[in-house]
């Protein structure tokens, strides 16, 4: 099998988070993946399976999925076309171009860009790279858990992660199944205003949000993928869906930068906020999370759609 | 052989730095080691060799060597005593205690703390952990290069790193020897005011600085280790010693943090190496004929370091007027 594009990322114990939670906390540092986030796991795997003899790949994400697709395509020496809406900042367009991708600007919102990406896949024989809803993506993401199983040597007490479209959640659940850890609870975090998973769990059915009103744009899927919803309904799994505010997510980003010296996106901050804001304790007090018999595994999903200027802009906008 | 304490850290291509240099640039991300810097390689190795049956370890660094020693000792389930001078910030003392170490505050400057550490090693039978001057440290650090050799698949055109006491330099040179890459030039960076290696190279002999006047405190050895100086004099190796100012090192830290690709906060000591890229030093060395055109990627060792946070960064910006 060809060498994967992702790395076995550092699993680091966080002394400061351990103090917060009262149980050892381990961070899986997906921010240090090539292209900046965990997405290279699934997208690398999907492209290796589908795009080796391809005329090229096409993706409709200007965010982390697009960056991962552009990177993987460059490494595979196939062309990459990233289709983005006109609202996409020039900085994002430039970054994708720096990765060697052709950027096509189409329409006003993501849906327009995605329609065009699917059209190009059809008419030009390109391999379409979905951002989160595909079994090959989940299979690729699942490698995260097998790496942890090899490094950690004990079963985690719980896994903490952020949910956007649900791709990471599905990959983690598959990984937990693969290593026999299905009894490990998963705390699935979103921000208020980018909470398609939480809305579906509350409604008991898939829900499409009218709009994304959170600043955590990279969590901004309007509908969570069906597989993630199915997992939330399964009696074999314990998936706890929780929300934090934008302010809490941003505050978590700032604290994490100070304590761990890594700058992550607000989407990632949603998961970190569960530790810093005391949510883990609250869930235990409410009896929704058992006392942790093993370490808390926090997936630091990463994300490169952030820099110091953006952080300061968000601080100003959210008045923190 | 027991499992090592260090990790095989990410080797990441930096498109932004590649644009600066004109050759592919790869970053070995030692900031993501447990305890925050490359030092765990050498200190982990030394402790595994010397301290397994020990009554404990003792170290006189409140910086990254101390953090690495405290972490390794905790993992080995042996006590750690870190001796630091009274000038050590409380934040540093707290972090060491959080790693489970006993912190002893002695004297005013590092030399006092080190004298006490050596005394405790003698009287209490503790294993003394030197910060940079020991063959076991260099042997441990050399694993960095063997990891790169396995990942990179091509020989680097040059290696870029920071020099404090010379431990990393010695480890890297040993690693280059181990993998047959002794013809790869090493660009060894320091800051003005923490330049013991450069001073020795210029004088043609070991030099002891009167004082460390740079803000890059973690580069602050007054005398570089003898082995590093010997390497600089060897005709078999190409080691280019260069300096940047504190302002350039700090600016490099900010740039590295601010760019979308890396998003990591490192110490100024680490910034000294990064500044060689951002300030155009690599090009200048080539223009001057001191560095050949790079026939392979530039390997930058991001040494890391945990003695920094946003407050410290802002304090330094204010102090250095950037």
UniProtKB/TrEMBL annotation, chain A:
Its main location: cytoplasm. GO terms for cellular component: cytoplasm. It is found in: Cytoplasm. Gene3D superfamilies: 3.40.50.1100. Pfam families: PALP. PROSITE patterns: DEHYDRATASE_SER_THR. Keywords: Cytoplasm, Gluconeogenesis, Lyase, Pyridoxal phosphate. It comes from the Eukaryota. Its cofactor is pyridoxal 5'-phosphate. The keyword Nucleotide-binding does not apply. GO terms for molecular function: L-serine ammonia-lyase activity; pyridoxal phosphate binding; threonine deaminase activity. Pathway: Carbohydrate biosynthesis; gluconeogenesis. Residues 5-291 form the Tryptophan synthase beta chain-like PALP domain. One of its GO terms (biological process) is isoleucine biosynthetic process. It catalyses: L-serine = pyruvate + NH4(+). Its EC number is 4.3.1.17. Coiled coil: none annotated. InterPro entries: Ser/Thr_Dehydratase (IPR050147), Ser/Thr_deHydtase_PyrdxlP-BS (IPR000634), TrpB-like_PALP (IPR001926), TrpB-like_PALP_sf (IPR036052). Belongs to the serine/threonine dehydratase family. This is L-serine ammonia-lyase. It comes from Eleginops maclovinus (Patagonian blennie).
